[in-house]
Amino acid sequence: MKRKGLRLFRILFFIMFVPLMVYLVGGELFLPDEWDRAQSQYEELDLDWKRVCSDGRREEFQIPGACDVKKGERIILETRIPVSFIPHSSVMFWREFDNTKVYIVSAD
Question: What pLDDT score was predicted for residue 84?
Fold first, then answer.
């Protein structure tokens, strides 16, 4: 009786395993790739960044850079993106901390 149960388990295992392997291998061989084939060009924008202080004055800020602030204090950096850059473009920010928020506002 024990051998019969083991044999039934093997049969059921192969009934599920073989189609799964055929599906995975066949999908890799015959289905199209999921990668985006669009050509991309990345460039660093050398812009004049200004830090907006809590009293409203603006001071030059170098990117990448660091500033001395108290823990929990908000830092506002601003710049103007050239109009020639905007059509068909994306803006990407690399940040170190998760609590970074980026707002892009139209100057119009």
Answer: 72
